[in-house]
Amino acid sequence: MSQHGVGPRAVTRSVAFLTAGVLAVPALAGCGSEDPAGKPLAAPDIQPAGRDRIADGGTLRWAVDSVPDTLNTFQSDADATTTRVAQAVLPSMFRMNASGRPERNPAYLESAEVVETEPKQVVLYKLNQQAVWSDGREIGAADFAAQWRALSGKDTAYWTARNAGYDRIQKIERGDSALEVKVTFSRPYADWRSLFSPLYPKDVMGTPDSFNDGARKKLKVTAGPFSVKEVDGEDDEITLARNPRWWGKPAKLSEIVLRTVPRDKRAAELAAGTLDVAEIDPSAARRITVAARPRSSSSPLMGPGADRSAADALRSWAVANGTDEDAADEETVARKKLRKAVTKYTRQQQALRGFEVRKSLEPAYTQLALNGAEGPLADERVRRAVARALDREELAEAVLKPLGLPAVPVGSHLALSGQAAYADNSGALGGQDTKEAQALLADAGWVRGGPVKEQEKKKGEKAAGAEGEKAGSSEDRQDDDGTYVVGEDNKAHGRQDPADHLAQDGKQYKQPAQGGAPGAYAPKGTAAPANREAAQLAKNGKALTLRFVLPSGPGSQTLRTVADRISRMLERVGIGTDISKVSDESYFKDHIASGQYDLALYSWPATAFPATDARPVYAKPVPAADGSLNVEQNYTRVGTDQVDQLFDEAVSTLDEGESRSLIRKADSRIWAAAGSIPLFQRPQLIAARKNLVNTGAFGFGTPVYEDMGFLKKGAKPAAGPSAKGSAAR
To answer: Biased-composition ranges for Low complexity (predicted)?
Structure first.
C-alpha cells in the first residue's frame, strides 16, 4: 500500500499514538461561535455528470492493490479492496458525505433515531420497503440480529477482527412491522451510527462456519447496485456485475473489474489501454499531466535520457565513433537500447493523453510515531523535544505543494478538517521552536559535545535493519560528501531543484555539501571545538541517536523523503538518526507492531467515529498474564488513564456536543504527550479516462457506484466544481 496507509475502518486499524499526563491544556478551540471543525481542505474531484449524460453499459477496469483473502470486512485479513467490494454490493445504513460525516443512506433506510434513553438506549430503524436481497428475501431484523450475535464477542467460534459497539447491544427485535428493527443497548453508545455498515445477510452471519469461510471468496447473496460475479485468483481480478434486483436507479455500468496492478506498473497499464482508472503515485501523475500539455519547449524533459546533458550526448557519440572498438560496441548497444526506450516512452505518453489526474486529499494522514517503551524516547521531555524540532509546515509543503494541494499540517489525531470532531489542538504541544527543544533536551540531561563511548548493539537494533539496508544516519552524512539520496537507487543531478523533483517521484535530493564541519574528521567522541552547536548530544557516554525505520518498497519514496527532512531537522538540535530501510512485508509486523524502532512514519485513516475507532490506538498498554505488554494498536506504547477515561466518557454519552468536546479534550492530551505527531493529510491522486464521470478522487465521500460511467458521445460533464460530488439521484 502506498505510503503504508491502513485500510478503512472496516479493517482493524494499525497505527501509533500518544497521550498526555499532568500537563496544562490550553482552552479548547470551539468556545466561540465559529465551528472549530472547519471545512475539508480539498473537495472531491470526480468529474460529476448527470445520469442523462451517461451511456448505458460498459466495463470499468479499476486498479487495486490486491485481490483480498476475504470478502468479509469483519475479518482480520480484510483490506481496502474488501471494503470497496462491500460498498458496491452490500447494504450500508450510513455512508460518509464529502465532509467525512455519516449520513443516512436512503437506498436502505427511511429513518434511524434514538427513540428511548431510559432505562435503556433504543434505536429504531425504519427500512426502505423496496430493499431486498438478491435472492428476493426482504432485508429485516433477522439480518441485524445475526450480525449482532456474530460480532458481539460472546461466541469465540466466530473469527472476528473487532466487536466494538456490537458488544453493547442487549437485544434486537422486530418493530411494529417487518420494516422496523428495534436495537436495545445494555450501555449507552454514542457511535451507534457506525453499526450495520456494511450489513451482511444472515446466510453469512448466521453460523461460525458460514462467517469464517462462507464469504471469503464469494458472496452469493448481496443487496447493492452490483453483485459479485467472479473472484479470479489466477488473474487477480474481481468482477462485479449489475444487480438485476437492485430497486434503485440501475447502475450505468454493466460491470466493474477490479484488477491487481502494482503501483509502479500502473502508468504503463493505463497507456496500454488495460485500465480506465487507478490510484497513482506522484511520478505517474507528473507523467500524465505533462502528456496532456501541448508540446512546447517549456514542457519539462522526462523519461529515458531526460537527465543527459548536451555534454553527455556528445561524449556518447564520441565513444560510439571512437577508435576503441570494445568501448564503441558497448556504447552503440547502449544507444540502441536508449532509442528503443525513448520510442516506447513516447508512445506511452501519446496514449496517456486520454487520461487526466483527479486529485484531492485522502481521508488519512501521515504521522511520525515515537516509541515510548524504552530508550531515550521513554522520557517525555525527549519526545516533546523531537516534536518541537519539527517544522510541520515545511514537511506538508514538501509533499503537497508541488502537487497543487493545500499544504496544511494536520491539527488533530482523532479527526481531519471538516469532520465533526476536528479541532486544531496542536497548541497543547506547541509549534517548531529550536530553543525550546534544546532546553527540553538539556533538562533531560543531554549535553552537546560530550565524549561518546563505543556502544554495543541494543537488543532488537539488528532486527531494525535486518531485511533492509542502512540508508544512512546523521553521523554518516558528516563523513561523506553530503550527497545522501533517499532510496539510494537514484542519483541527483546538480541542475535539478530538489523540491521540483519531489513533485515528480516523491524523492528528494540534496546538493553536495560545501566543506566540512569543524571536528567532522576527528575521532568519534571528540567534541567540535569551533562549532559546539553542531555537535551531537550525549549522556553518560551515549550519543542521542534514534533508530528510524522505513519501508523500502517503490511506493514509499515520499515517506523516505520526509524522513530525510525530519532527520536534518533533528540534527539541528543535536539528535542523530540511524535510518534503516526494511521490506514492505516486514515493516509493520516485524518492526512497528513488535516495537523494534524509535521513529517511524506511516499513515492511518480518519474515522467519523473516533470514540470507538481510536480507543484501541491510544489505550494505555497493560501487562498481560504472561508478563508481556498488551498494546492493542497503540504501537508507540504511550498511554494514560486520563485519556482512556475521556474516550470512555465520549463513547457513553448520547449528547453529541458533549461527545465532541470530550474527544477534543482527549486529543489535546494526546498532543501534549508527544507519542505521535500528525504531519499532513495524504494526497489522493487518481488517473482516469477523460470521459469517465462520477469517479476519481472521492476524498471523504463514499462512492455512488450506480452513477459511475462513461459519457455519451458528444456529452459533456456537469458544469461547476467536483465538490458537488456525484450527480443527484
So the answer is: 509-529
Neighbours of 574 (CB within 10 A): 26
Give every CB contact of residue 589 below 8 A, 6+ residues apart in sequence.
none
615, three cell numbers? 480507543
Residues in the chain: 729
* Phi and psi, residue 152, nearest 5°: -70, -20
C-alpha cell at 343: 520510442
Q: Which residues of 669-680 are buried (b: 16+ CB within 10 A; e: fewer)?
A: bbbbbbbbbbbb
Which residues of the chain, if any, have pLDDT below 70? 1-33, 295-308, 310, 450-451, 454-534, 719-729
**Which residues fall within 8 angstroms of residue 178, CB to CB, at 6 or more apart?**
138, 140, 141
- The neighbour count for residue 298, using CB atoms within 10 Å, is 7
Helices (H), 429-556: 434-443, 461-464, 474-479, 498-505
**Could you say which DSSP state residue 433 is in?**
-
Residue 700 backbone phi and psi in degrees, to 5: -75, -30
R_g of the chain computed on alpha carbons? 27
Taking the C-alpha atoms of residue 168 and residue 351, their distance in angstroms, rounded to an integer, is 54
CA-to-CA distance for 719 and 729, rounded, in angstroms? 17
Give the position of cell 492493542.
Answer: 632
Chain center to CA of 296: 36
Sequence-distant (≥ 6) Cβ neighbours of residue 37 within 8 angstroms: 415, 417, 418, 419, 420, 421, 422, 423
Q: DSSP letters of 23-81?
A: ---PPPTTSSSS-TT---SS--B-----GGGBPS--EEEEEES---S-S-TTSTT--HH
Neighbouring residues of 101: CB distance < 8 A, sequence distance ≥ 6: 419, 420, 608
545-551 and 599-605 beta bridge pairing: parallel
What is the SS3 assignment for 485? Answer: strand
C-alpha span between 531 and 449 (Å, rounded): 9
In angstroms, the CA 34 to CA 290 distance is: 41
The verdict on pTM exceeding 0.90 is: no
Q: Which residues neighbour 370 within 8 Å (Cβ) at sequence distance 6 or greater?
A: 18, 377, 383, 386, 387, 598, 599, 636, 638, 674, 675, 676, 677
Q: CB neighbours of 109 closer than 8 A, spacing ≥ 6?
A: 93, 94, 125, 126, 127, 128
pLDDT digits (tens, 9 = 90+) for 128-185: 999 999 999 999 999 999 999 999 999 999 999 888 999 999 999 999 999 999 999 9
CB 110 within 8 A of CB 98: no
Q: Are 197 and 612 in contact (CB under 8 A)?
A: no
Q: How far is CA 139 from CA 222, 225, 557, in A?
A: 10, 15, 46
The model's pLDDT over 540-567, given as tens digits with 9 standing for 90+, comes to 999 999 999 999 987 788 999 999 999 9
Q: Which residue has the cell 506504547?
A: 637
